[in-house]
Recover the amino acids of this structure.
């Protein structure tokens, strides 16, 4: 140990927030372990480090006895009183050990190793603290590598993982690509923070709209819900209390510029922007756009609705493989049954 190491500990406390006592305790424990491994198999010793000058001393803890049987663990009453006259039988005496010369080199190496270890631990904890609690935040990163279908993204201080399940289907990734992702989960592992990313989560679309549309960022326009089938289609419901603002028009932007920027970011995924309404029947009708709706009959208790559309709008309302109806149901939280006007007439005739 030396004053240089003590100065390093002081800097460590200032820059990394690691308390000097924590590092000194770790150094003591490491030195004790090293001494036991290399010089003594007994456990009855300890190390004291002078926090002023960095010097250390080795002590053997011995029991005061009348007759010494094990000189490594016991000390005679006579010898104990030579150290301090107050010692009595059964007391523990700390007897200084003069370690071998090479132990000084081991002590210095151990101290440096512990300091480096504590620095790494502090940096890992700092990175974890920086990202913890930021789930759903949007991050821009650079594709670093691709392995076994997973994409590893350089976020600056740390590498995030974009698993296959969180990728946009059929989107290709190349090393060096800059991509936007949202944080899905932050874990603290033994090796530090682990950040799981997503490009398929609805929150990515939400964050992109917040970045692209100032009225959303400023709270003039509110996003009420998003339903998404990544790589294919998204529905987003918006509203405003400002009569001078068109929520859909603001999200679309001049000549569609705002929504186009978002579509370009998410691999040309289609986006339906609809107006949210407190009236569930109007909201359900809006959610099924672009199909035209004749009427909606809602059952508040069961949270289900029957939607009637013109005969030529039935397939449009349902969508390819039921996608439009499925996204509308997910967006509104209602079970939606879509029928044509002809089917409604037939249904009524059967009732009569």
């Amino acid at each position: 140990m030396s004053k240089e190491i003590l100065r390093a500990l002081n800097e460590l406390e200032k820059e990394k927030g690691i308390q000097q006592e924590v590092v000194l305790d770790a150094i003591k424990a490491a030195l004790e372990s090293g001494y036991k491994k290399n010089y003594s198999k007994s456990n009855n010793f300890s190390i004291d480090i002078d926090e002023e000058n960095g010097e250390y001393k080795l002590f053997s803890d011995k029991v005061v006895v009348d007759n010494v049987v094990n000189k490594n663990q016991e000390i005679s009453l006579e010898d104990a009183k030579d150290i301090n006259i107050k010692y009595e039988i059964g007391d523990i005496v700390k007897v200084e050990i003069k370690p071998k010369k090479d132990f000084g080199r081991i002590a210095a190496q151990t101290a440096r190793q512990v300091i480096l270890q504590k620095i790494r631990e502090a940096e890992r904890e700092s990175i974890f603290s920086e990202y913890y609690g930021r789930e759903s935040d949007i991050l821009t990163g650079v594709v670093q590598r691709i392995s076994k279908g997973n994409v590893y993204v350089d976020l600056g201080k740390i590498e995030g993982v974009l698993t296959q399940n969180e990728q946009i289907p059929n989107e290709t990734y190349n090393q060096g690509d800059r991509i936007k992702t949202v944080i899905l989960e932050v874990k603290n592992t033994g090796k530090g923070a682990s950040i799981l990313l997503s490009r398929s989560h609805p929150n990515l679309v939400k964050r992109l709209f917040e970045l692209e549309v100032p009225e959303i960022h400023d709270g003039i326009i509110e996003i009420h819900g998003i339903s998404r089938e990544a790589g294919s289609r998204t529905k987003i419901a918006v509203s405003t209390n400002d009569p001078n603002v068109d929520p859909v028009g603001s999200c679309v932007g001049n000549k569609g510029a705002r929504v186009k920027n978002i579509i370009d970011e998410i691999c040309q995924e289609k986006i339906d922007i609809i107006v949210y309404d407190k009236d569930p029947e109007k909201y359900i009708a809006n959610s099924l756009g672009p199909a035209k709706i004749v009427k909606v009959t809602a059952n508040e208790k069961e949270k289900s609705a029957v939607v009637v559309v013109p005969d030529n709008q039935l397939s449009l309302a349902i969508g390819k493989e039921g996608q439009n109806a499925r996204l509308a149901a997910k967006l509104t939280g209602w079970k939606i049954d879509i029928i044509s006007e002809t089917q409604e007439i037939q249904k009524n005739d059967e009732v009569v």
